[in-house]
Amino acid sequence: MCGVRHCREKRLASWLCLASDALDAHVLPVTHDYLSSVLGLRRAGVTETLIRFEEQKLIRKTRGVLQIDKRDCLAEKSCSCYKLISGAYASS
């Protein structure tokens, strides 16, 4: 449902927050290609969005590694699906 209703920025922010929660880490070993595959987005669109996030100082990226610097701001950019999913995990 998220893939149909929410823009790529919100979907990517949600996925990064969920992955960060699952790993309990702010450094994620992911590539643009992997993100495009799991989110069903074009790789170029993922790259554009990550560049925008980096310009806003939310993340830093290097080859194969993405570091989340401003977790709260990234969570604010995420779609409502993030809050629902993270809430479900928190209550179980």
Describe this structure in words.
By secondary structure, the chain is mainly α. It contains six helices and three strands; from the N terminus they run H-H-E-H-H-E-E-H-H. Helix 2 (8-23) runs parallel beside helix 6 (80-91) and helix 3 (32-39) packs across helix 4.
List the uncertain runs: none
Q: Let me know the number of strands.
A: 3
Mean pLDDT: 89
Helix content: 55-70%
Structural class: mainly alpha
Keywords:
92 residues; mainly alpha
Topology, please?
Layout: H1 2-5, H2 8-23, E1 27-28, H3 32-39, H4 43-55, E2 59-62, E3 65-68, H5 71-77, H6 80-91
Antiparallel strand pairs: 1-3, 2-3
Offer a concise description of the structure.
This protein is mainly alpha-helical.
